[in-house]
Amino acid sequence: MGNAPSMLTQYDIEEVQGHCNKLFTQQEIVSLYERFCQLDRNAKGFISADEFMSVPEFAMNPLAQRLLKMVDGLNFKDFVAFLSAFSAKASLEHKVALIFRVYDSDGNGKVTFNDILEVLRDMTGSFMSDKQREEVLAQLLQEAGYTKESYLLLDDFVKIFANSGLKMDVEVPVD
After folding, report:
1. Number of domains present in the structure of the chain
2. Which residue range or ranges hold the EF-hand domain (predicted)?
């Protein structure tokens, strides 16, 4: 699977299933492989940032640049592992871990006021001023029992999202 072979073997499929904790069926993995090969235009065995940006839904996402840092250069196994957070079978913790990585752009395991502010800036663009964003975020954090000086860990994100009814499910089309 290193250099994007033309076909997956049963062994490859089972290996990928193990890599994503069996969150996708074998049929879904084959469909994901077909999509991966479409994106990997030069058959390098990995998908570049430019290739990801060719997906309109990805390119239109206000967090695309943050997501690109997470997906640039993924091989097929890691591509499926990344997408597994969007499986209906993925646990809340698995989904929240992906969200946490979006906010924790420097990868230090902590999300600060400024980290959240950057994501809010990406999402709101010119619809809110920096002052408005800071006020809204400070109020939100205060209501949740945090301050501007607090930092959030993954466990904090899990607690925050625990009762949110978070839905991040994407259906994998199977031919």
Report:
1. 2
2. 27-62, 91-126
